[in-house]
Amino acid sequence: MVRAHVPGKLGKLKLASFVRGMAVSAAAVSLLFGSVTAAHAASWPATTPVSDTTVDETVPTPVPKTSLAIKKIANPVAPVKGTVTVKPSVAAAGWVTVTSKVITVKQGNKTVVKNKAKAKLKAGTYSVKTTVKYKNYVMEDDKRIHSSSKSTTKTQKLVVRNAVAVKTIAGKKVPYNGKATIKPNVSKANEVKVVSKTLTVKQGNKTVVRNKKSASLKAGKYRVTTSVKYRLPSSSYTRMATKTQWLTITSGKKPSRVAGTGSWNCPAGYPIKGNQSSSGDWIYHVPGGGFYNRTNPEECFASQGAAINAGYRPSKR
Hints:
Low-confidence stretches: 1-7, 9-16, 23-51
Distance between the termini: 209 Å
Radius of gyration: 56 Å
Largest sheet: 6 strands, mixed
CATH topology of the largest domain: Immunoglobulin-like
CATH class of the largest domain: Mainly Beta
Strand content: over 45%
Helix content: 10-25%
Number of strands: 24
Structural class: mainly beta
């Protein structure tokens, strides 16, 4: 028989100390590995569950704003004695297709153009009706599905302006033996550039002035040609417009008296000499009179009556 060893009091104390040491070590190891595990666990990303449902990521086609407007046709400029082309003015945006756009043009009660894509018009005032046919549509599988055809209209007043207008130069009245200055009488549309405007003037078969900016003319009847060179908007081509007219310049009434010239002679048409004598009398002298050639006139008269009406008396010689 083997008898178990029973430690004594000293042995029991050592055994208890050993057990307590092992317990502390085990707790430290447990704390260490537990911290590491927690740190790793914190650094791992969370796992998102995978769904069996398919997500449609297709972006739907945005529906644009659809609009259609018939705009006012701007008043155009036509060359002198020429025409300008006028077309419909239409703005369309979005899911709309314009199938046709035409105009009908009237001048007064007369139809100039009916349902045409464009019209050539001379200067004047017109009534223009624009008609637009169109279809709206939607998109299905990248294809256009159109609606039935629709139409809309708009009527407006249209003024076709002359590029330039060569106007008549008005007649003038000048003082006796005087002159009148005349210049071209021209108006233009704002957009038009006038390069030059000149006059050529004839009296009978005689050319008085040729291609000048102005002319100084005595009383008489003249044939005047005004010439204008101009350019239409956005054009480098120079055009010309002309107008020929009769022009009459009339003279004022011939005065009955004029001032002396400072010499011994009076102007033509005024043969009567008049001056003040040393006695203070106003005396007139007729050709052939005793003092006529020795008189330096202060005034000259067309007739003796004109001198008398002016307060002169006849010379005694």
